Amino acid sequence: MVRHNNQLPNNLTQLQNLIKRDPESYKEEFSQQLAHFKTTLEIFNLNPTQYNKKLDEQSMFLAQVAQCYLEDMKYFPQKIIDILKSHNTTLHNDMRLALCKCLILLRNKNFITPFDLLELFFNLLKYQDKHLREFLKTHIITDIKNMNMKHKDMKFNSTLQNFMFSMLRNSDAKAAKLSLDILIELYHKNIWNDQKTVNIIADIGCFSKVTKVMVASLKFFLGRDEAEKEENSDSEDEVDPRDTMIANKFNKKTRKRDKMVEKVKKVAKKLKKKKEKAPVFNFSALHLLNNPQGFAEKLFKLMESSNERFEVKLMCLDVISRLIGLHNLFLFNYYPFIARLLLPHQREVTRILQFAAQASHELVPAEIIEPVMRAIANNFITERNSTDVMAVGLNAVREICARCPLAITEDLLRDLVQYKNYKEKSVMMAARSLIQLYRQSMPTLLHKKDRGRPTEASLELKTKKYGDMDIKDYVPGSEVLLEKKDITEDEKKKKKGNKKKGNESDNDDWVDVNSDESEIDISDSDEDSDDGEEEEEEVVEEEKDIDEDAGNKDNQPQEKEANTRKVLKAKRKLNKEDIAEKVETARNIAMDTIFTDEDFKRIDAAQVKKHVSGIKRNKSFVEDEEESGELVQLSAIENIHKKRKHDKNARWESVLKGREERDKFGYKDRRKNIHCSKTNREKRKTKNYQMVKHKAKGKIKRSFKDKQVAFRNYLIKQKKMK
Predict the structure, then answer these.
(1) How far apart are CA 705 and CA 578, in angstroms?
(2) What pLDDT digit, counting tens, does each position of 572-600 carry?
(3) Burial level of 214, CB count in 10 A (0-12/13-18/19+)?
(4) Burial track 505-532 (b if 16+ CB lie within 10 A, e otherwise)
């Protein structure tokens, strides 16, 4: 091997490459560079404020080949650390960054323990060098992530966490803030997503005297609000409304059946969404708190006495409201405090209404949440306000009542429901959504005319008192499994008769859509929906019988009313008996049967059918209200059904915007090459009409007399020209 000794001392890149290939052969050159480094270091210590390029290159070279000479490089990392510790305040920014890069390279080769390096780096975070802080932050996160990639060293992680937690208490704001950012980033990367990390951020970060640290901690608990995308893909385990649509094709087509199909779609979609939302926790940091009650009380006390900006106080209220709603906490001072802020002119009032709704749950006593409801009713839902304010107030009441049905009194509810016929659509729809909510939860609070036609699902509802838990010892809807098995002989004969009629007809490809066990049979639900009409018909028939017996209907009005009541009471008793029988059947099946996936599909279909049966056709209440989740969406409160009024300029702008991607109206030149000539016919279209009007009459078929006149004029003209 030819050695170029004269070039190697000046070409460190080439020497580095040769040493990595053959360390023993270039030991002398390495020793020479190590001696140069020591000399350069002594010179640098005399004036550490200047950037020394030679020291930068030599230290990086030695770090690159350190693994080749372990014995000689044993104390090299400590020398670099000593430079940073002794001259940390006076070092040039570029020199400090270069030495940190050198230490990171040595850390990757296991010359330095991660704890010693992180301790040094956290001390360097205090200095006014933004680029260095970002660089160190990235390295710390990457290094901890790589250490926990294959397996987690719990002892080392615990030591490192304790050190980082102590940095959160650091008096230096920049170091504390960056430490918090690192902890939050490691949590989001699922590296340190344990209870210890969350509770330290809650106990130290949220009560820090540094506003930036406090705000960052509160944002951490508020989570990353990402809009949830609704997946409309059909899964095997859900109720498939397509079966209903297929059934509707072969049944008699009426407007009633079309509405029933739409209703089935909405109910199936709602049940699917409810099933998907159950196990999902978007803000799991709030679930990992050890003492949410104490944390909420402490944070509320701090917020009341603090002089922070209004935005920071709103963040505190948001976190507290989420804690109360999520963990069903009791923080009775919260409701009078937030009630004082519920005024239409208050800044961010819709968000404050959202916090009030998030802080409500079934265990909040009605007298505690009463100030909030009274403030909304008095300040928002009055006709002296604009319709938008009234609609927002009604929406807020609906969201609170969705989580705490007993929050509103019967008198107040019936007063608010009166807005269902209000002249403005926004207020009308908000009031009707409130009616729809109580139809599904506590219909007894509504006036009888607002309860709607009772469905099988509404008859199963029980009015819960404060603290009641609706715990079922059976699987609701499982009685349908027994009904499918016990098909009577009469039904079988009817099916056979239908098949024979189908064979006799010209269409031999008849499809029996009711054979699929998992589908929702529209015909059954239609029969159920006509129950009310049948009851009325029976009542009318019985009334006629009574009138015939009496001879005159005006003579015995009391007897007529008594008989009508008896019929309706008998019907109600039958419905209650049927429901009790179904519950008993479902309980027996649940004890004796192991349900399969097909069974669950049939049960889900039966539950959808219960919600569908008995729906009124002449009502337009909102049917697609979302289920109340962990959090209240701000859009649910700001949802205003209103067609905005535009002036002429605004309408004209929308018209022009709709024309942007549209072809220009008029004649379209369809030539492939725009430079080629046009035909005479095409040219004629662009000419002035006065030039071509004489040719327009040429195509008209002239009579013999007209031809004679034209020929005579032509001859006269020719004669004059001669």
Answers:
(1) 95
(2) 544 556 666 666 666 666 666 666 777 76
(3) buried
(4) eeeeeeeebbebebbbbbeebbebbebe
Angle at 136 between CA 130 and CA 137, to 5 degrees: 90
Query: Which of 53, 67, 51, 54 has the alpha carbon at shortest distance from 16?
Result: 67
Q: What's the rounded Cα separation, in Å, for the pair 291 and 297?
A: 10
- pTM for the full model? 0.64
pLDDT one-digit tens code per residue, 537-574? 444 444 444 344 444 444 455 555 565 555 455 545 44
Phi–psi pair at 335, nearest 5 degrees: -70, -45
Specify the 3-state DSSP secondary structure of 459.
Answer: helix
On the CB side of 467, CA atoms within 13 Å amount to: 1
What does the alpha-carbon distance between residue 430 and residue 622 come to, in Å, rounded to a whole number? Answer: 9
Give the 3-state DSSP-derived string for 613-642, with helices as H, strands as E and coil as C: CCCCCCCCCCCCCCCCCCCCCHHHHCCCCC
Using CB atoms within 10 A of its CB, is residue 502 exposed (0-12), middle (13-18) or buried (19+)? Answer: middle
Looking at per-residue confidence, does 290 or 238 come out higher?
Answer: 290
Token duo for residue 427: 């207020």
Q: Would you tell me how many other CB atoms lie within 10 Å of the CB of residue 478?
A: 23
Host H or E run for residue 516: none
Q: Give the SS3 label for residue 305.
A: helix
pLDDT surpassing 60 at residue 692: yes
- Residue 468 and residue 460: Cα distance in Å, rounded? 16
* pLDDT band, very low/low/confident/very high, at 656 (cuts 50, 70, 90): confident
Structure token pair of residue 159: 């030591």
Asked if 234 contacts 218 with a C-beta cutoff of 8 angstroms, the reply is no
Alpha-carbon torsion 344, 350, 356, 360, what sign? positive
- Nearest alpha-carbon partner for 63 in 91, 33, 41: 33
Cβ atoms of residues 201 and 217 within 8 Å: yes
Q: What is the CA radius of gyration of the chain?
A: 41
Q: What is the largest CA-CA distance in the chain?
A: 135
249 within 8 A of 512, measured Cβ to Cβ: no
Spatial CA neighbour of 445 closest among 412, 418, 403: 412
| pLDDT surpassing 90 at residue 12 | no
The closest of 391, 297, 285, 304 to 344, measured between CA atoms, is: 391
The span from the CA of 88 to the CA of 229, in Å, is 50
How large is the angle between the packed helices 93-108 and 76-86, nearest 10 degrees? 150
Give dist(CA 334, CA 326) in Å, integer. Answer: 15
Question: What's the CA gap between 399 and 215, in Å, rounded?
Answer: 27
Closest CA to 420 of 406, 437, 404, 408: 437
